[in-house]
C-alpha cells in the first residue's frame, strides 16, 4: 500500500509539473477574422428579411437566422463617399472633411492621417484586403493600398461615373457634362488593368468581386484577416451576369438582388469549406438608401420616407445583418440605434486593436451583438448632409428635423429601365417625429412634446459647437481637413 501510494504521488507530481510547464508556454492568440460586405444604394426594404421581394435572398435570410438583424441601423451619411469615410474611420464624415460623392477629378480625398479599420487591424498582424468600390480618392496616394490594405481590386468610384449614356451607349453630345468623365478604370493595387466600357462589362463586376473575395479568404485561411467587400451594385447602372438573367421573375433588379445574395452565399460557403465560420464576424450593410428616381432599377425603403441623398429615414436607415457563431446569438432582432461609424470601435475591441489617436464618433456596440440585457451603447445619432448641414437629430424614439433644403422623390414620377426621373430640393420645416409609431415620418408632434424639442435642440447645439452647422453658419471647433489632391 505505501508503495502504491508513492507511485500515485509521483504520478500526480508529474502531472502537476506538466500543467505548470504548459501554462508558461506562450499560447497562440485567437484573433477572429472580420468581413464587411458593403452594398451600394441597397434600400432598407430590399433584403427579403426586411420585406423585400418577390425575388429570393436565401443566403441573407440564413445569415439573419444565424445572427443579429438590426432594424434601426444608420449609414454615416446618405451619400457614397461620405458614407464610406464614416464606415472606415468611425467618424461622422464632416468631422474629417468628406462630403458628397467625390468626382473622378475631385480636389479632396480621405486624408492619409486618418486611421482606418484596415490600418488598426494591420497593426495587430491582420492580412487586409479590399474588393470593390473605393470612392475616397481615385489615384495614389489616396487609394486603398495607402490606407491600410495589403491588396485591392475594384473601381475607384461609382459605376455611373463614366462617359456612357443611360441607354448604355457612349455619349456623342460633348456638351453634356457626363461626356467629360474619364474612362471607367478597374484597378488592381494602384494600377489600371482594364477599362469598363459597356453594360456587358459591368455585368461581370459582381461575380469578379465575389471570386476575388473568396480567393482572398482561401489564401489567408491561416488568418487573421480583414476583408472589405464593397459591391458596386445595386447602384445604377445595374447589370447582371448571364447565369442570373431572367431568373428571379422580378425583372432586372430582382435578378441583381439574387446575384448579390448569391455573392454573400459564396463568401459564407468559402468560410465553411475552410473551417473558418466560427472564427469569423461577417457584417452586411449598405452605404445609403435607394436612388428612388430610377424607378424599377432602384430598390425600396420598406415604407421609410424618401431615399438616397436625404436625411429622412429612407435615405439613411439601412439593412444590417451580422453573424459570428458562438458570440452572436442566433435569431436576434435589435431595435437599438446603431451605425456604420460604430463598426470601427467594435471591431477594434473584438480584435484587440487600439482606437485611433484622433477623436472618433463611433461607440462599441459589442453588447448589442451579444444581446446583453438593457444594452444601449448609442444614446443618440445626428444626421448631417451636404458640406456640413445638421439636418436632424435622434434620441430614443424621437427625431427632430431642422429646417433645410432637402431632396424629394415625391413630386415627380420616377424614370424606368435605367433612366432617372427628377429629384428636386424642397423646403423642409422644423418637425418632430415619433419613430416608434411613425417610421414614415408623416406626423409632426412638436406641438405635443415641446419639452422633447427643447432637449434635442440643446443636444444638437453641442454638435454645432464641435462639428459645426452650415445652416447656422457655425464652423465647429473639431473638424479636420481632408486629403488634398494635387491636380495635374
From TrEMBL:
Positions of the Sulfatase N-terminal domain: 32-352
Membrane spanning stretches: none
Stretch forming the signal peptide: 1-25
PROSITE patterns noted in UniProt: SULFATASE_2 (PS00149)
Keyword Signal appears in the UniProt entry: yes
GO molecular function terms noted in the UniProt entry: arylsulfatase activity; metal ion binding
Keywords of this entry: Calcium, Hydrolase, Metal-binding, Signal
UniProt xrefs under InterPro entries: Alkaline_phosphatase_core_sf, Sulfatase, Sulfatase_CS, Sulfatase_N
Gene3D superfamilies for the chain: 3.30.1120.10, Alkaline Phosphatase, subunit A
Source domain of life: Bacteria
Assigned protein family: Belongs to the sulfatase family.
Protein name stated in the entry: Arylsulfatase
Species: Chitinophaga niabensis
Amino acid at each position: 500500500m505505501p508503495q502504491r501510494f508513492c507511485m500515485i504521488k509521483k504520478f500526480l507530481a508529474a502531472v502537476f509539473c506538466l500543467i505548470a510547464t504548459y501554462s508558461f508556454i506562450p499560447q497562440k492568440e485567437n484573433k477572429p477574422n472580420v468581413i464587411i460586405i458593403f452594398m451600394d444604394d441597397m434600400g432598407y426594404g430590399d433584403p427579403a428579411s426586411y420585406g423585400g421581394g418577390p425575388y429570393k435572398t436565401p443566403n441573407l435570410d440564413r445569415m439573419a437566422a444565424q445572427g443579429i438583424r438590426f432594424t434601426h441601423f444608420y449609414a454615416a451619411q446618405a451619400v457614397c463617399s461620405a458614407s464610406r469615410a464614416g464606415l472606415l474611420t468611425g467618424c461622422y464624415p464632416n468631422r474629417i472633411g468628406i462630403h458628397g460623392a467625390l468626382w473622378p477629378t475631385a480636389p479632396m480625398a480621405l486624408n492619409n492621417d486618418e486611421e482606418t479599420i484596415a490600418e488598426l487591424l494591420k497593426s495587430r498582424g491582420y492580412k487586409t484586403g479590399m474588393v470593390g468600390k473605393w470612392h475616397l480618392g481615385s489615384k495614389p496616394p489616396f487609394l486603398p493600398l495607402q490606407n491600410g490594405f495589403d491588396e485591392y481590386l475594384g473601381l475607384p468610384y461609382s459605376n455611373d461615373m463614366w462617359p456612357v449614356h443611360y441607354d448604355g451607349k457612349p455619349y456623342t453630345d460633348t456638351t453634356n457634362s457626363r461626356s467629360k468623365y474619364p474612362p471607367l478604370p478597374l484597378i488592381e493595387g494602384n494600377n489600371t488593368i482594364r477599362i469598363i466600357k459597356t453594360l456587358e462589362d459591368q455585368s461581370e463586376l459582381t461575380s469578379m468581386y465575389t471570386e476575388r473575395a473568396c480567393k482572398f479568404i482561401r489564401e489567408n485561411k491561416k488568418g487573421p484577416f480583414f476583408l472589405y467587400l464593397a459591391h458596386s451594385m445595386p447602384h445604377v447602372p445595374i447589370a447582371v451576369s448571364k447565369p442570373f438573367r431572367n431568373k428571379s421573375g422580378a425583372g432586372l433588379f430582382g435578378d441583381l438582388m439574387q446575384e448579390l445574395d448569391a455573392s454573400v452565399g459564396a463568401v459564407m460557403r468559402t468560410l465553411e469549406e475552410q473551417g473558418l465560420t466560427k472564427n469569423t464576424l461577417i457584417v452586411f450593410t449598405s452605404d445609403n438608401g435607394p436612388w428612388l428616381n430610377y424607378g424599377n432599377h432602384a430598390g425600396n425603403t420598406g415604407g421609410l420616407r424618401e431615399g438616397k441623398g436625404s436625411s429622412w429615414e429612407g435615405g439613411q436607415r439601412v439593412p444590417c445583418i451580422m453573424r459570428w457563431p458562438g458570440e452572436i446569438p442566433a435569431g436576434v432582432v435589435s431595435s437599438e440605434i446603431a451605425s456604420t461609424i460604430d463598426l470601427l470601435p467594435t471591431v477594434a475591441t473584438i480584435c484587440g486593436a487600439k482606437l485611433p489617436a484622433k477623436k472618433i464618433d463611433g461607440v462599441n456596440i459589442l453588447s448589442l451583438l451579444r444581446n446583453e440585457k438593457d444594452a444601449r451603447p448609442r444614446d443618440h445619432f445626428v444626421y448631417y448632409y451636404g458640406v456640413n448641414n445638421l439636418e436632424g437629430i435622434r434620441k430614443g424614439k424621437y427625431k427632430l428635423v431642422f429646417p433645410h433644403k432637402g431632396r424629394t422623390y415625391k413630386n415627380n414620377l420616377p424614370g424606368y429601365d435605367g433612366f432617372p426621373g427628377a429629384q428636386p430640393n424642397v423646403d423642409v420645416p422644423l418637425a418632430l417625429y415619433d419613430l416608434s409609431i411613425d417610421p414614415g415620418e408623416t406626423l409632426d408632434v412638436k406641438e405635443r412634446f415641446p419639452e422633447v424639442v427643447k432637449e434635442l435642440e440643446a443636444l444638437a447645439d453641442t454638435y454645432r459647437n464641435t462639428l459645426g452647422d452650415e445652416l447656422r453658419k457655425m464652423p465647429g471647433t473639431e473638424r479636420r481637413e481632408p486629403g488634398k489632391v494635387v491636380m495635374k
